[in-house]
Amino acid sequence: MIKRRALISILAILLLAVLALPALAQQEKVDIYENQKLVKSVVFVVGTREYFVNGQTPGVKMDVAPFVEAGRTFVPVRFLSNALGVEDKNIGWNEKARLVTLKQPGYPVVELVVGSRQLKSNGKVTNMDASPLVRSGRTFLPARWVAEALGYQVEWDASLGLVVCWPKGEPKPDVSAVKEYLQKTTSEQGSWVVINGYRVPNPDDKEIIFDKWSQYVWITKAGLKVDTEKTDQSELQLYIYPLNAEAFEQAREVLASKWGDELADQVINYAMQKKTRNTPLPLKSFFTPNGQEIYVVGDKTDGVAITVWLI
User: Which burial class, exposed, middle or buried, applies to 209 when counting CB atoms under 10 A from its CB (0-12, 13-18, 19+)?
Assistant: First the structure.
């Protein structure tokens, strides 16, 4: 009887130690899971290199930012998978087949191929409206489709460019703490909104806007003119005057939010050459992954125009 009681006591102590592990882990990292299920929520923000788990701020840092293309938000495979509970060791990549496999115990086995709109979840094929793609040497996955395949509900909040994910069947989470954090951390440069798939300075934020010409056109205090009116030829026009670092950085953020950091850096690095020239900057074209042309030209004054043309 004594041995049996001792054994029960030992088992109880071990059980308490195991139950205490999540509390210890929570002190070390943000993305905490219980039984491999996300506790409350995960939030990605277009154009922001930080994601948020369970409303905890500051969030988890990323080396690249999510962007919007063809109406879908793309997130790097590792960060998206980690946020949804898939460990690095369970993220597979087949270079030859360009195949991404997410194989976390307790989750559906999800397979995607770069350039293909087919998603397999436990062998069942779903046709997506977007396909995984490669940007800046990184593989990006369409956030909504992958999250839903792993058992999450997804909602888009256009006011701040948020992708909010939470477990299916659970109440919609309160992400007000994340919104407050984002608004606080961006208060110095003002708020941003998503229009036509681009994250742009909020035209109604008087902290950063110098003048609003119309519902489509406005100028920031830094000197960036933003024209979001879609025509039969173009979908976005940016004009930088005067040539200063803040205006160029704003333009870079606008372009990166939809086309990624690599292309945005190429465009802005060329445009910045106008700062050291007393002559016009020759027109130069850049191309997006879907074939749209972005051209940059410096006029006879001190301004630089950047136009994204439709195909």
Answer: middle
For residue 288, the number of C-alpha atoms closer than 13 Å in the C-beta half-sphere is 20
Residue 244 has pLDDT above 90, yes or no: no
Q: Which residues of 238-276 are buried (b: 16+ CB within 10 A; e: fewer)?
A: bbbbebeeebbebbbbbbbbbbbbebbebbbebbbebbe
Distance CA(37)–CA(167), nearest Å, equals 8
Candidates 63, 119, 283, 292; CA nearest to 196 is 292
pLDDT higher at 40 or 39 = 40
Other C-beta atoms lying within 10 Å of the C-beta of residue 49: 15
Cβ pair 286, 296 in contact under 8 A: yes
Q: Which amino acid is at 199?
A: R
* pLDDT number for residue 12: 37
What is the C-alpha separation between 63 and 50, in angstroms, rounded? 9
* Nearest in space to 140 (alpha carbons), one of 263, 291, 285: 263
223 φ/ψ angles, rounded to the nearest 5 degrees:
110, 20
Which two tokens mark 307? 């136009």
The alpha-carbon radius of gyration of the chain (Å, integer) is: 23
Rounded CA separation 85/38 (Å)? 7
Residue with structure tokens 């701020």? 57
DSSP structure string for 144-188:
HHHHHHTTEEEEEETTTTEEEEEETTSPPP--HHHHHHHHHHTTT
Predicted TM-score (pTM) of the model is 0.61
Which of 218, 265, 256, 210 has its CA nearest to residue 237?
218
